[in-house]
Every structure is written in C-alpha cells, then in structure tokens.
Request: fold
Amino acid sequence: MLTIGTIQFDVPFVQAALSGYSDLPMRRLARRYGAPFALNEVVLDKTVTRKGRKRHRILSVPEDDHPVGGQLMGADPEGFAPAAAAMAEAGYDVIDINFGCPVKKVLGRCRGGFLLSEPKTALSIIRSVYDTVGKDRPVTVKMRRGMDDSLESRKHFFTILDGAFDIGVSAITIHGRTVQQRYVGPSQWAFLKEVKQHVGDRTILGSGDLFSAEACVRMIRETGVDGVTIARGCIGNPWIFQECRAIWSGQPLPDPPSITEQARAISWHFEKSLLTHGDQLAPRIMRKFGIKYSEHHPLGLQVRKSFIMVKSIDDFRTVISQWYDPNRDWPPVLRRDGHGDLVAAGATA
Reply:
C-alpha cells in the first residue's frame, strides 16, 4: 500500500502529471483502468491566479476526479502561495511542486528543473506552499536527479531533498535522469535506490523508463522506492494500470488490449474529451492521443497516418470505424515487453 500524507492507495502505481496530456478525460480513463491516483498536467502559478477560461478549467474538480494532485510550476516563492491556496480550495487532494521539467523555454524562465540549481529558492518555494496548505493536505515535490552529473549538482539535489522532508513534504518523486539529459539515455535506477536508502521510511516515488507493467514492478523491487509515477508510458496506454495491478497481485499478465477493447477505450476517451473541451478543440487534442494509441495497433504506421490527418469529429470517428472494426481479420495486436519494445502477442479482437 502506498501512503502519501493521510491518503492511502491500494497499489503503488500513479499517473504522473503530463504537460499537454493529463487533462480530466485522461485522468478519468486512467482511473477506469485501475490508476488509484492521477495528477493534473503542470500549470503555472500565474495561470491559477489570473482570471480567465484556463483558470476556470484548472479549478474545476468534479466529484469523480478524486484523489487528484495539482502540480504547480513557477519561479517566485511568493507566487506559489496564492496558487496553492486556490488549488486546495478547488478540491485538489495533493499539491505537487515541479522541479523537474527539462524544457528549454521553462529553464530559460528559471522554472522547473532550473530550480535544482538554486536550492535556496527551491526550498523557499516549498516552505511557501507548505505553510499555506500543508496543514490541510499533502504537499509533494517532483525532481530530477540534478541539473547534470557534477558534484555540485549532486550536492544541490540532496540539499533540496533533505530540506523538503524537513519542511514537511509527504513524498518526493525522483526521475532518474538529469535535467541536461532531458529524455536521452537511460534513467539511473541505481540512483533511486541510493535515494531511498538515504531517506529511510520517507516516501519516494520513482520515475523514468516505465513503458511496461513489468518495468513498473521491477523498479519498485530493484530500488526499494515506495511507488512509481507512470508518465509517457501511459499516454495512449491506460491498460498499463490494470496490467500493473495484475502482476502486483501475483496474477498472470493480461492479454494485450484487443482491437475491440482499443476501440472501446479510444471512443470513450474521445466522448469525454468532447464534453470537456468542446467540438472544435477536442478533435485536435485527441489527434495526439490517437497517434499514441496507434502504437498498439498491428498496422500502427497506417493508423498513425490516419490520426495525423484528423481535423474534425467526423474525421476521428472515421478512423475508429476504419481501423478498429472488430469484424475485420487483423494481425496480432501489439504490447510493450519488459524492455519497453513493441511486440506482437495475443488475440486480434
């Protein structure tokens, strides 16, 4: 059982905050397939406090979106406090602070992963958020293992890590790559093991290279982390959560999602996206999801091309009817193996 502050989860597999992806429909879908906890996509502190449609959408937390984490990013400790208060009042169960984003634009504005090079500012931000909402709900932090592989970066990492727990945060997620690496090269799981041994019984979640249920379970067993946050590995792959549950409970790995099941999930996701984003925006948003869903299809390259061309509701539904017809004789469907590689397996529909 995974515990974050006062909240307990029956399995230690979490849907990560995914910029541009983990909106309400994706979080609902993740829960539908077994995720016990999901985080909203990262938002700027200024966006939360500035009036507008984005603010209204961010601060609308329906009853079926719990437990949910709200992830904040910014550069100024003073800006975090009102944003955290607004998210807490809106109903977010956990407030998460992003010190891990490696995007150049973000780093250039002294946000995200940049703050790993500024321990004093990072800890001031954590203190600001904790003092504002920490008595009412868990505060958590997302980090990478440093800006780079220098000794100075390592020192900054542990200064922030230890300082955050001393302030009172309930859990810290560690991505096993540096900010400089972005997504190039392997995630250093050995570092996760070192961190977990360093903090003892405090809660650490691991992240990085989690593209299959086997990898998720293996990270926990090899490193000793208390749980994992699944990021890119769950985009267009909500089935990873039910697969994690099966392996964790000692059951066989389920068959990969059939063509029929893929159609069911994608169609459900699309209809929820229409309700959330409207007829004009939803097809464009779902186009990028469709590209990821296509990786499970035995004719993935052709399906991907079809999703890329989507511009309207009718376009999207045409792709579903053409490429996810359960009455056609499809080749075997695809799944990711323990190394994250796509392989053919199981029945077709």
